[in-house]
């Protein structure tokens, strides 16, 4: 047993609380503490400097030095806290918590090679247009193109700024989830860990993360764990005398204590949320691979054009251009810059840099939507894992069932007490009050007189109502000598108390009925008589427990033993007297049954791992649908000890069919997760207590409920559900599947557009004979390439931002939860995507090159109209392809008919494209098209619909494709 803890009256701790009452709380000033002392205090815990601490008056001396008070803490006013943060620093560690502002992203956008080339060419456009057309006309055209370039850069910066802003806001919120009890101005209050200051007095309970370096106060003993990088823990015993040093970032696993904060901002686990991770790395690798291919093609084209220039095979308005002879200097300069610009444009347009931005937008949008649904996703990069979850391991009580409980049955001995307790012996009632009011699994709140756990609150309420229990009177009549808090491994708690009147000692135990019953040799009858438990009566008691459990009640047994000081130290295992057996009912959480059915329909198995008895667990699991009593082959229920005692081979054979583990300890939950992962399952764990931490860390996805979970469980969870509703878990999986699905859709769209641009631009560049006059400089073109500067900025806006918003900002459809989980090792670009990409790419390349080579004769148009038709057809092809890619495997009409954002963006693209061609032709270097030419462009683009539909009918079950797999170092 551990020493009595804070929160109880009339204990040995109460004496130590008075030792520093004469110290006065002051508003600490910068000149109050010397620089030397500040440095020594900051390093006090790191150095474990007991000598310096003794020389400066021990902990009492620190109270005075830090301007704090043992019973009142520091002043809680804003000015005092601000001064303390200025002197000692704030309690943040790691990355800068300030979000990067918009101007930072503007500078980052300017560093993008494509944006730089666009900007340089826009400036050159002004210069060349002024030199050729005069200041007035030349300035207007150049300024228009410069403005268009700046708009693209601004939109690009805003697109990057928005996800970062969302991550910053969620990081701040995530940090505030972790709170501890702090004494300020004489009042206990809940404070987020980042707001802790030096001098604060903090109350720590099991499951708390030590928020800062500090010293353990009072004569208490606690145990803290430090998680190492290998997943193991290093346990340390801390007490208020020999080893009072508490290190920031460690986790309290046993005991309760107050601590004095001496240093902040050192090892507290950063709650920064960022968009790095597996998906982003895949896109970086994919972008790099395609970019290198584009660079290679661009370099080859550059060599071809350079040879043609020196060979005199490039013409401008019928005049041969070559380096030899005496050609016009401006023409040569235009040709040279054009030759450099064409490969650069090809390299840039063929690199799908929009993939990274689209992935970040998808993750940020989904995080914001889930936050609005009271779900905090700490690791957005886990979207692939979330969508691939095949098994969910969860507790029973508090996860599937409500925290609130009600005592519905109480058995005293062999009798069920259904009549008023006035008929029960006063002595028995008094003993029950002792066992309920003083033997609690956790101490009462620092500012309330009732226990924080819902189970014990229900027992407290029952005792107050039925037994007229007076908690204040109990603390006045009895002293808590030792207390053993609830241990999930032993499934019991205990307390040793001393009665002030007669100096007698009373030992109380409470816990699982089978555990407590095994310690009892006698039981109390309602008359107060003590009777022996023989074999027959033991069977009756076991049947009583079994009946309660079969009705879905959680059973708790109470036992007592009066002892003397001599017996206390000589008896190894005193035989206890059974006080009673209590049954508590907890209803299922709303929506649990539907959530379980939704998971099963989505190919996700739920496994309930609970500390309840076999019968209670079976009743709860059957009620919520985890177990099917009509088909026992589809699910098995076992006890934790059986699961632990299986051989490794037996566990691996049985683990898939096990649905419920009863009387489980944290080690069995961890073992279950390890077995499932070994069988290549993707496992999510729903945990809430300190015993779930190892399973949360081991799982692919750790999930906890915010308000009722231990701080350490929240710290090691990837997802925090604030509303504590099980259906939120289904929504998380749906969103995870939707995120990845949307990213794949946009990837297919952008790769198609990039491949088409790479091939078509390359062919046009190497087959052209003339650069496009002055536009070879200003429009980043050579020959008959269809894209001018304004056109290129518009294409960048379409591909990098507008299409991403249309295809990415998309709520996950319900149909996703009617499919099995995707394979975890499934490549980013799967077989179906390659099928669709190849089909659309071949079609677009064929039609665009046909217009390039045969457009003049086929449509009886000049060169500029032909280039405009190529450009217009390419843009419209991408618009129609947005419809095709919105659904990878089926028709898109049903899915998108209610999506206003999608329709709004596609309508905007079409409208502005018409404006570019028909109104801004002088600025965009386009030619106006007549109705027949528009009809040809639209018809060519629209043909992608039936082609896409036809391609989706191609079966892929037996086709083996070489998929593009990206590797992460």
UniProtKB/TrEMBL annotation:
It catalyses: Ca(2+)(in) + ATP + H2O = Ca(2+)(out) + ADP + phosphate + H(+). Its main location: membrane. The chain crosses the membrane at residues 114-131, 143-162, 296-316, 328-348, 743-768, 788-811, 901-920, 932-951. GO terms for molecular function: ATP binding; ATP hydrolysis activity; calmodulin binding; metal ion binding; P-type calcium transporter activity. Residues 785-953 form the Cation-transporting P-type ATPase C-terminal domain. It is a multi-pass membrane protein. Pfam families: Cation_ATPase (PF13246), Cation_ATPase_C (PF00689), Cation_ATPase_N (PF00690), E1-E2_ATPase (PF00122). Its EC number is 7.2.2.10. Residues 56-125 form the Cation-transporting P-type ATPase N-terminal domain. It is found in: Membrane. Residues 178-271 form the P-type ATPase A domain. InterPro entries: ATPase_P-typ_cation-transptr_C, ATPase_P-typ_cation-transptr_N, ATPase_P-typ_cyto_dom_N, ATPase_P-typ_TM_dom_sf, ATPase_P-typ_transduc_dom_A_sf, ATPase_P-type_domA, HAD-like_sf, HAD_sf. The keyword Nucleotide-binding applies. GO terms for cellular component: plasma membrane. Keywords: ATP-binding, Calcium, Calcium transport, Calmodulin-binding, Ion transport, Magnesium, Membrane, Metal-binding, Nucleotide-binding, Transmembrane, Transmembrane helix, Transport. Catalyzes the hydrolysis of ATP coupled with the transport of calcium. Belongs to the cation transport ATPase (P-type) (TC 3.A.3) family. Type IIB subfamily. This is Calcium-transporting ATPase.
């Amino acid at each position: 047993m551990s020493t009595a803890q804070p929160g109880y009256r009339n204990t040995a701790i109460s004496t130590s609380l008075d030792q520093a009452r004469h110290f006065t709380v002051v508003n600490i000033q910068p000149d109050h503490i010397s620089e030397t002392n500040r440095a020594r205090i900051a390093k006090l815990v790191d150095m474990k400097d007991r000598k310096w601490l003794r020389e400066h008056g021990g902990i009492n001396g620190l109270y005075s030095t830090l301007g704090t008070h043992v019973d009142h803490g520091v002043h809680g006013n804003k000015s005092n806290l601000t001064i303390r943060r200025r002197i000692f620093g704030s309690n943040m560690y790691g990355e800068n918590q300030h979000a990067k502002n918009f101007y930072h992203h503007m500078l980052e956008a300017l560093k993008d090679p494509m944006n730089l080339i666009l900007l340089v060419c826009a400036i050159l456009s002004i210069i060349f247009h002024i030199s050729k057309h005069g200041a007035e006309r030349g300035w207007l055209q150049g300024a228009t193109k410069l403005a268009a370039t700046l708009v693209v850069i601004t939109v690009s910066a805003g697109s990057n700024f928005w996800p970062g802003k969302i991550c910053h806001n969620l990081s701040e919120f995530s940090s505030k989830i972790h709170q501890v009890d702090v004494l300020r101005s004489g009042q206990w209050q809940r404070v987020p860990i980042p707001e802790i200051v030096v001098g604060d007095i903090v109350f720590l309970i099991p499951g708390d993360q030590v928020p800062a370096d500090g010293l353990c106060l009072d004569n208490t003993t606690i145990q803290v764990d430090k998680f190492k990088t290998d997943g193991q823990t290093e346990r340390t015993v801390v007490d208020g005398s020999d080893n009072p040093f508490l290190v920031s970032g460690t986790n309290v696993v046993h005991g309760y204590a107050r601590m004095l904060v001496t240093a902040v901002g050192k090892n507290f686990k950063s709650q920064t949320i960022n968009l790095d991770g597996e998906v982003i790395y895949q896109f970086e690798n994919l972008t790099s691979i395609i970019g290198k291919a584009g660079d290679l093609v661009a370099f080859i084209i550059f060599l071809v054009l350079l040879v043609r220039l020196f060979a005199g095979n490039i013409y401008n308005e019928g005049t041969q251009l070559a380096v030899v002879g005496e050609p016009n200097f401006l023409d040569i300069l235009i040709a040279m810059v054009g030759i450099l610009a064409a490969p650069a444009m090809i390299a840039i347009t063929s690199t799908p840099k929009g993939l990274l931005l689209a992935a970040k937008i998808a993750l940020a949008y989904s995080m914001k939507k889930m936050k609005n649904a009271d779900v905090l996703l700490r690791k957005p990069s886990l979207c692939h894992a979330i969508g691939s979850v095949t098994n969910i391991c969860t507790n029973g009580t508090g996860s599937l069932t409500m925290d609130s409980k009600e005592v519905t049955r109480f058995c005293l001995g062999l009798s069920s007490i259904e009549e008023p307790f006035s008929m029960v012996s006063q002595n028995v009632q008094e003993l029950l009050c002792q066992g309920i009011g003083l033997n609690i699994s956790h101490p009462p709140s620092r500012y309330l007189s009732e226990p924080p756990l819902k189970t014990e609150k229900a027992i407290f309420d029952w005792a107050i109502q039925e037994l007229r229990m007076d908690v204040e009177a109990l603390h006045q009549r009895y002293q808590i000598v030792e207390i053993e808090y609830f241990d999930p491994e032993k499934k019991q708690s205990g307390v040793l108390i001393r009665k002030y009147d007669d100096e007698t000692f009373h030992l109380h135990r409470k816990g699982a009925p089978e555990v407590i019953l095994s310690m009892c040799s006698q039981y109390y009858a309602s008359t107060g008589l003590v009777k022996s438990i023989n074999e027959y009566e033991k069977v009756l008691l076991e049947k009583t427990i079994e009946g309660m459990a079969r009705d879905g009640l959680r059973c708790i047994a109470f036992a007592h033993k009066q002892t003397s000081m001599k017996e206390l130290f000589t008896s190894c295992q005193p035989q206890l007297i059974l006080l009673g057996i209590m049954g508590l009912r907890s209803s299922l959480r709303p929506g649990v049954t539907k959530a379980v059915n939704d998971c099963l329909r989505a190919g996700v198995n739920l496994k309930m791992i609970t500390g309840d008895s076999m019968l209670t667990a079976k009743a709860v699991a059957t009620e919520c649908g985890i177990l099917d009593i009509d088909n026992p082959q589809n699910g098995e229920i076992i006890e934790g000890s059986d699961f632990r005692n299986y051989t490794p081979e037996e566990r691996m054979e049985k683990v898939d069919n096990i649905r419920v583990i009863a009387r489980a300890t944290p080690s069995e939950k961890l073992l279950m997760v390890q077995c499932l992962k070994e069988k290549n399952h993707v496992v999510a764990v729903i945990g809430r207590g300190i015993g779930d931490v190892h399973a949360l860390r081991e799982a692919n996805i750790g999930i906890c409920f915010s308000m009722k979970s231990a701080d350490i469980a929240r710290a090691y969870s990837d997802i925090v559900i604030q509303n504590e509703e099980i259906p939120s878990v289904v929504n998380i999986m749906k969103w995870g599947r939707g995120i990845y699905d949307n990213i794949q859709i946009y990837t297919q769209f952008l790769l198609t557009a990039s491949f088409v641009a790479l091939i078509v631009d390359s062919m046009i560049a190497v087959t052209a004979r003339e650069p496009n006059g002055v536009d070879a400089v200003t429009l980043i073109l050579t020959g008959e390439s269809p894209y001018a500067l304004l056109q290129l900025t518009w294409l960048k806006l379409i591909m990098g931002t507008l299409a991403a918003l249309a295809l990415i900002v998309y709520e996950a459809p319900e149909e996703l939860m009617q499919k099995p989980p995707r394979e975890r090792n499934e490549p980013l670009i799967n077989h179906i995507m390659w099928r669709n990409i190849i089909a659309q790419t071949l079609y677009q390349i064929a039609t665009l090159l046909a217009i390039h080579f045969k457009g003049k004769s086929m449509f009886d148009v000049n060169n500029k109209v032909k280039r405009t038709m190529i450009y217009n057809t390419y843009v419209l092809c991408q618009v129609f392809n947005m419809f095709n890619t919105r659904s990878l495997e089926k028709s898109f009409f049903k899915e998108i008919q209610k999506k206003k954002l999608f329709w709004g963006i596609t309508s905007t693209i079409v409208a502005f494209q018409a404006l570019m061609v028909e109104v801004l032709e002088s600025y965009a270097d386009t030619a106006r098209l007549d109705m027949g030419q528009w009809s040809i462009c639209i018809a060519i683009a629209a043909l992608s619909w039936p082609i896409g539909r036809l391609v989706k009918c191609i079966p892929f079950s037996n086709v083996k494709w070489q998929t593009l797999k990206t590797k992460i170092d």
